[in-house]
C-alpha cells in the first residue's frame, strides 16, 4: 500500500498563523522534506513540536535528484510531508516535480491549507479580486522582463507577482513602460510581519518610491487592463469575440448582435468584419 504526500502551508510571517494541522502533521510524518532544514527547526521549536521522522532537504538545487528518493519512500508506504520556507509548496517554491511524480504513480496527494502571500496581497491590495492570475517571478534580465510584461499588457485580470527587493524599482519602472504609467498597483511588503507595509498608487509613483530603496519580502499586485472601448476594438478582436460566442453555442446572428452591443458598434460593422475574415485568403 502506497503512502501519502502531504503539502503543508507554513506561515509567511507571523508564526501564529500556522494552521493547527501543521503541528500534527509535523509530529506524525515519517519523512519531512524541507526547503531549509534550519528554518524547519525554528518552526518546530516555535510550535512546540517534537518530530520523529527523517528530515531531508528539498530545495531548487537538489529537487530533481531528491524526487526519486521521496517517491520511493511514498511507494513503500511512508507519509511524506513537504514544507517550504513560507506559504504553499509548488507556488514559486519546490514541490511541483514531486507532486507530478506522485500523481503519475497514483500516490495520494493531499494538503494542509495555510497562509498564502498571493491571496493575502490580493485581499489587501484594494484592486479587483474576482479574476486574477499569478505570474510568479519575472526574468532578471531587463529585456526579457519587459518582453514578458508586454505579453500580458492587455490582460484584464488582476496580475500578481513576486519580486526581490533589490529589483523592485527596475521591475516597477518596466511595468509602467509596458502597462502604462497610470495603471494602478499595490506593493505589499513584509506581509503579516512587524513592519508590514502596503503601498498603493499608479505604477509611475510606486517606481519613484521604490527607487529610494525597499527591503523585505515583496508581492506586487497590478490592476488588469481596462476593458477596451469602441475605438480600441479592431476587426480581429471583433471576430475573435464572435467566434468565442459561436463556440459556446450561440448562432452567428445572435453572436454578432451581442458583440456589437458590448462594443457599442453598429451590427453591420461587426458583420462586415466577420465576412471579411471568412473571405480572407
Describe the protein's topology.
Elements: E1 4-8, H1 20-28, E2 31-34, H2 37-47, E3 54-57, H3 63-75, E4 79-83, H4 96-104, E5 108-112, H5 117-125, E6 132-137, H6 142-151, E7 158-163, H7 168-179, E8 184-189, E9 197-202, H8 203-210, E10 218-222, H9 235-247, H10 252-263, H11 267-279
Parallel strand pairs: 1-4, 1-5, 2-3, 2-4, 6-7
Antiparallel strand pairs: 7-10, 8-9, 8-10
Helix pairs in contact: 3-4, 6-7, 7-8, 9-10, 9-11, 10-11
Q: Any key phrases for this structure?
A:
11 helices, single chain, 10 strands, 281 residues
In words, what does this structure look like?
The structure is a single chain. The chain is of the alpha/beta class and 281 residues long. The protein is built from 11 helices and 10 strands. The chain has helices at residues 20-28, 37-47, 63-75, 96-104, 117-125, 142-151, 168-179, 203-210, 235-247, 252-263, 267-279, and strands at residues 4-8, 31-34, 54-57, 79-83, 108-112, 132-137, 158-163, 184-189, 197-202, 218-222. The strands form 2 sheets. It has a 5-stranded parallel sheet with strand order 3-2-4-1-5, sandwiched between helices. Strands 6-7-10-8-9 form a 5-stranded mixed sheet, sandwiched between helices. A hairpin with a 7-residue loop joins strand 8 and strand 9. The model has no long low-confidence stretch (mean pLDDT 94).
Amino acid at each position: 500500500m502506497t503512502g501519502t504526500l502531504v503539502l503543508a502551508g507554513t506561515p509567511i510571517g507571523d508564526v501564529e498563523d500556522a494552521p493547527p494541522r501543521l503541528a500534527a502533521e509535523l509530529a506524525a510524518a515519517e519523512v519531512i522534506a524541507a526547503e531549509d532544514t534550519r528554518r524547519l527547526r525554528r518552526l518546530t521549536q516555535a510550535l512546540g513540536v517534537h518530530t520523529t521522522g527523517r528530515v531531508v532537504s528539498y530545495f531548487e538545487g537538489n529537487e530533481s535528484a531528491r524526487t526519486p528518493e521521496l517517491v520511493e519512500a511514498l511507494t513503500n508506504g511512508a507519509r511524506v510531508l513537504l514544507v517550504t520556507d513560507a506559504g504553499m509548496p509548488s507556488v514559486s517554491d519546490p514541490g511541483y516535480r514531486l507532486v507530478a511524480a506522485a500523481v503519475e504513480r497514483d500516490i495520494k496527494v493531499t494538503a494542509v491549507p495555510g497562509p498564502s502571500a498571493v491571496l493575502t496581497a490580493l485581499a489587501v491590495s484594494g484592486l479587483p479580486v474576482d479574476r486574477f492570475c499569478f505570474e510568479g517571478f519575472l526574468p532578471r534580465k531587463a529585456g526579457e522582463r519587459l518582453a514578458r510584461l508586454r505579453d500580458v499588457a492587455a490582460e484584464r485580470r488582476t496580475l500578481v507577482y513576486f519580486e526581490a527587493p533589490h529589483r523592485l524599482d527596475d521591475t516597477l519602472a518596466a511595468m509602467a513602460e509596458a502597462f502604462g504609467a497610470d495603471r494602478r498597483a499595490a506593493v505589499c511588503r513584509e506581509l503579516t510581519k512587524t513592519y508590514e507595509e502596503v503601498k498603493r498608487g499608479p505604477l509611475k509613483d510606486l517606481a519613484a518610491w521604490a527607487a529610494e530603496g525597499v527591503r523585505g519580502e515583496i508581492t506586487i499586485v497590478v490592476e488588469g487592463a481596462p476593458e477596451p472601448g469602441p475605438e480600441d476594438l479592431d476587426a480581429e478582436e471583433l471576430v475573435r469575440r464572435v467566434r468565442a460566442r459561436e463556440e459556446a453555442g450561440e448562432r452567428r446572428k445572435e453572436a454578432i448582435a451581442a458583440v456589437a452591443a458590448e462594443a457599442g458598434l453598429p451590427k453591420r460593422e461587426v458583420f462586415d468584419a466577420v465576412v471579411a475574415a471568412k473571405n480572407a485568403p
